[in-house]
Design a protein that fits this description.
six-stranded parallel sheet; globular
Length: 776
């Protein structure tokens, strides 16, 4: 690009000015041209360097994202690379110049704001919708770039700084035109398809597949029409910057691509979303790469290729793990929800008796086990039970039970959905395993706990050749000594196939909401006097004839008498909650570093409820101190999904840290509270920041109680954080003084007796000083 060797003199014309280059000879006698007097020659080595650095960061990003332990570093590399490329191209005059630079900078602000807001506010269970939306926006951006370039008066020229440099060759223009049409077709297809996927994932549109009649013929006609109108945009009298008929043809192409995106994704069943999300991701990369060819932008070409190739690879992996053909994926023929009716008719009918378990039955199996494997599925995501699942695993591991997690590649509604949920619940990475790594472990497992999964644990995939999911790799949970399936009901999964696992002799069904059921198990594990003497094998009964005929009542089992001390408080929780006259709120502390303190422990919450005060808690507010949501729920606390819900419902809110701007609500924590409510928190009223907080509270009509300024009276000692801090400082002063000064006072004889030489000097004899003296 920066070569200045030419075979003939070349003139550059720019409206009123003409510039020439001076002929020279290099050391070898070769004729070259001195371009130092050319005002339009710019050495782009700096930009090429930035592009290389940015793309290298993308490569490192993909490498680090391949492992959970290094994924955060991968994200950092990706952000560094993207920031470098945006800054580099923004500064280069090929794209921005004069006032355009500031217009571009300002136009990026809404995107930055939307990105930050959506990323901070979205719940972890809604990540599939967010990923789908981002895929769509990438394709939409590529399509808009293409339409804008078509109506650009300088689309056929090279420009720098707004000045004409040279005309593009005919071959360049044809490549640019083909890339433009591809950007529009793929971009709009990705955009509308992603929006439909988001609506399905959110539940706005039913997840079942909707296939239009003659879909194959209509698809063929749509693509033929797109090729026809795309060609007409640059032939038959139409050319670049044709804002009448040519632009009309371009809009038609965009419309037809949008229609196809809707048709293709509407035909996808909810259970096939992992494949659709990964394929739409590949399409967004393809549209980005096409836009790079269209704009002669190397960074867009390469980064788009990264996204496209990784998306295609992921799609192939998903198809393999769902036993689907990539060809059907590419033509939009996947997700018909269970295959053909003929396949369903040929598949084996499941006959047997389903055995229903109680919470105590499951509790006995788990506590008598040596090894437990938990298999999470989409049901866990729907119930938002990942934290309860993590707490159950934690309590079982505390009882020296080996707990592992088995994750199927297509469990959930996007690739890695279960991994993200478990990571958010802080499940250790080293106990989560993929299908290939853990399938061999089921044979020596005592209990396999299936949490909201169905088709990924269906043995019919291996035993029934006529099943719609025949050949699909599944987790072989039935090889465990006992299996427990936790589901809301006995309904089939997205494939519409009965699951023989439900009637296996070693299986029990624990029906109900996943989160509620897990909390029941956790409460049983929390009982210190629980004594289990019933053999786990006695929980299973003989099989019968008909499917889904849950046996009730069960035959009585001969068991030893269980002796349990039951806290009468548990029976009174509902009554105490209904009679509560005040709600005290606890929110998650906002801090850059890890915060291990909590404003309210479950024990204190229990005592408050007995006194008529109910605690409402933001989910995971106590996680830093080792208190999971289940511990609070067990003592009658109400768990809410966001800080704003806590502020709206609580009359009093307690915090460990000073109130600050909330990153999710984008409002100050004081302003999030309702007028007339009270905030108890450190304020430091003697400082400038404290006075600002008091003024803000006054404007919001919020009562502010500074725990670091409570009068130092005996009754206030339990709440006096200032005394507590001073007490710690006093202890430190005693230790340091004894070490540094050693001996500094002579012994003396008083009426109280004789004292040896002192080693400690305490200045100030308030509460903290007296405590320090006593300790010394």
């Amino acid at each position: 690009k920066t070569s200045i060797i030419h075979t003939k003199q070349r003139w550059i014309k720019n409206n009123k000015h003409t510039h020439t280059k001076t002929k020279m000879e290099d050391n070898n006698g070769t004729e070259v041209w001195d371009r130092t007097d050319d005002p339009y020659f710019v050495d782009k080595a700096w930009l090429d360097t930035i592009v290389v650095v940015g793309l290298t960061c993308f490569v490192l990003c993909l490498m680090k994202l391949s492992k959970v332990a290094t994924s955060k570093m991968g994200m950092i590399f990706g952000m560094i690379g993207m920031t470098a490329l945006v800054a580099g191209y923004w500064a280069d005059e090929a794209y921005t110049y004069d006032d355009g630079r500031w217009l571009i900078a300002v136009s990026m602000a809404p995107g930055i704001l939307l990105g930050l807001t959506s990323a901070l506010s979205v719940e972890i269970t809604s990540l599939p919708e967010l990923v789908g939306a981002y895929n769509g926006f990438g394709g939409f951006a590529a399509a808009l770039e293409a339409i804008a370039l078509y109506v650009d008066p300088n689309a056929k020229n090279f420009l720098r700084g707004g000045h004409f440099i040279d005309e593009k060759t005919q071959a360049m223009l044809w490549v640019q035109a083909i890339a433009l049409v591809l950007s529009i077709v793929i971009g709009m297809m990705t955009f509308t398809g992603s929006m439909i996927a988001c609506l399905k994932l959110h539940g706005t549109i039913a997840s079942k597949p909707r296939v239009i009649p003659y879909r194959s013929i209509i698809t063929l006609l749509l693509f033929a029409a797109m090729v026809l109108f795309g060609t007409l945009s640059f032939t038959a009298g139409q050319d670049w910057n044709d804002r009448v008929l040519g632009l009309t043809f371009i809009i038609i192409v965009a419309f037809l691509a949008s229609v196809y995106g809707v048709i293709a994704v509407m035909a996808i069943g909810g259970g096939d979303m992992p494949v659709s999300i990964s394929f739409l991701n590949a399409l967004s990369g393809m549209s980005t790469s096409a836009a790079g060819f269209m704009l002669s932008n190397e960074a867009l070409v390469v980064s788009g290729a990264f996204i496209c190739c990784s998306g295609i690879i992921l799609t192939l992996v998903m198809c393999k793990n769902m036993n689907r053909s990539i060809i059907k994926v590419l033509v939009g023929g996947f997700g018909d929800g269970g295959g053909s009716s003929s396949a369903k008719a040929k598949s084996e009918k499941v006959v047997g008796t389903v055995k229903e378990a109680t919470a105590w039955d499951v509790f006995e199996l788990l506590t008598n086990a040596r090894k437990v494997i938990i298999v999470p599925g989409y049901g866990m995501a729907v119930a938002k039970a990942q934290h309860a699942c993590a707490e159950l695993a934690c309590k079982l591991r505390a009882k020296d039970i080996n707990v592992l997690f088995a994750i199927h590649p297509v469990a959930g509604r996007m690739p890695g959905h279960m991994n993200v949920l478990l990571a958010e619940a802080k499940v250790p990475y080293d106990i989560t395993f993929g299908l290939d790594d853990i399938n061999a472990d089921f044979a020596d497992t005592d209990v396999a706990l299936v949490l909201g999964a169905n088709d990924i644990v269906n043995p019919g995939a291996q035993t029934d050749a006529d099943s719609p999911i025949a050949g699909m790799p599944v987790l072989e949970v039935w090889k465990a000594t006992h299996t427990i399936c936790m589901k809301r009901s006995l309904n089939v999964g997205y494939a519409g196939v009965d699951n023989p696992l439900f009637v296996n002799d070693n299986n029990m069904m624990f029906l109900g909401d996943a989160k509620t059921s897990l909390l029941k198990l956790i409460s049983l594990l929390d009982e210190p006097s629980a004594h289990f003497s019933t053999p786990a094998s006695s929980l299973f009964m003989g099989s019968g004839e008909s499917m889904r005929d849950i046996e009730a009542p069960k035959p009585k089992r001969k068991t030893h008498q269980r002796v349990k001390s039951v806290d009468p408080f548990l029976a009174r929780i509902s009554e105490l909650q209904s009679n509560a006259f005040l709600k005290v709120g606890v929110v998650r502390e906002i801090a850059d570093e890890f915060e291990a303190r909590v404003a309210m422990t479950p024990d204190i919450a229990k005592r408050l409820l007995k006194s008529g005060i109910q605690v409402v808690l933001e989910t995971s507010a106590g996680i830093g101190g080792g208190f999971l949501d289940g511990a609070y729920a067990d003592v009658g606390c109400k768990i809410l999904n966001s800080a704003q819900e806590v502020y709206d419902s609580a009359g009093v809110v307690i915090k460990i840290r000073e109130p600050i701007m909330h990153p999710v609500g984008l409002k100050h924590e004081i302003e999030m509270m309702t007028a007339g409510s009270t905030l108890i928190a450190p304020v430091s009223p003697q400082t400038e920041n404290g006075r600002i907080l008091m003024d803000r509270a006054k404007e919001a009509g919020v009562n502010l109680l500074a725990v670091d300024a409570i009068p130092r009276i005996s009754r206030a000692q339990n709440l006096d954080t200032l005394s507590s801090q001073s007490k710690i400082a006093g202890y430190r002063a005693v230790i340091e003084a004894a070490y540094i000064y050693q001996r500094f006072m002579n012994g003396e004889v008083t009426s109280a007796g004789s004292f040896g030489a002192c080693k400690v000097l305490v200045i100030g004899a308030g509460v903290a000083g007296l405590a320090a003296i006593a300790t010394a």
